[in-house]
Structure formats: C-alpha cells, structure tokens
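REQUEST ID: PR-0412
SUBMITTED BY: lab tech R.K.
PRIORITY: routine
TASK: structure prediction, single protein chain
INPUT:
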Amino acid sequence: MCVVSALLESDQLTLPLTLVNFWQPLLQLFHQSHATPLLLEKLLQLQTDSGGLQDRLVVGWVAAVVTAIQEGCRSGSPLARIYEAGCEVDGRRLLHLCLRTPNRHTTHLLNRWGDALTT
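STATUS: complete
OUTPUT:
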C-alpha cells in the first residue's frame, strides 16, 4: 500500500524500476512489431478524469516510452536501448488524447512535453 500511496502523491511521472524492468521485454516486442504508437494511443484512451492509480500508471508508462524515444540514451532510461533506432509517434494525436480526458497526471505530462512532440 505504501508504494501505491507514493505513486499517487508524487508529481513525478517516473515508474518504479522493478516495474519497468519487468515489462521491458513486452515493450521490446511491441516495438519490433511497430506497435508502439498504437500502444501509446490505447493507453491514453484508458484515461479517466479521476486521477487514480490507473491514470497514474498509464501516464507513467506513456511518459517513460516517449522520453526514451525522444531522448534515447541521454534519458538514462532502461527503455532507451529499445528505442535507440527511433520510433515514429504522432505527437499531436497523443496530445489530443491527453486533452480529451484531463486529470492531474495528464496535466503533468502535458507540462513535461510542451512543444517537444509537435515539432
């Protein structure tokens, strides 16, 4: 319960490293199948306006993947290796999905991204 409370109260979008490492092979498969953009869209479509744990985890995953895509190895993310060859993502579509169901977590995501996805 302590981890859940910490996740919900944090303004950071980071996920626990154990969680990222556990799901890394699945994210690798999505990337190899060119399904990362679809995964990001489907995750953001799961957003609610409650700002609960589901929303926090969804936004955390989207932030982790997009950061790894944008910054590559500079991000220091364990996911950076997966996306070092690049991955094309429709940034405007992701921004639209964030705005469609805003909550306190998507607000942090939008602040973090700024104009980076649309340029």
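NOTES: The mean pLDDT is 85.
REVIEWED BY: pending
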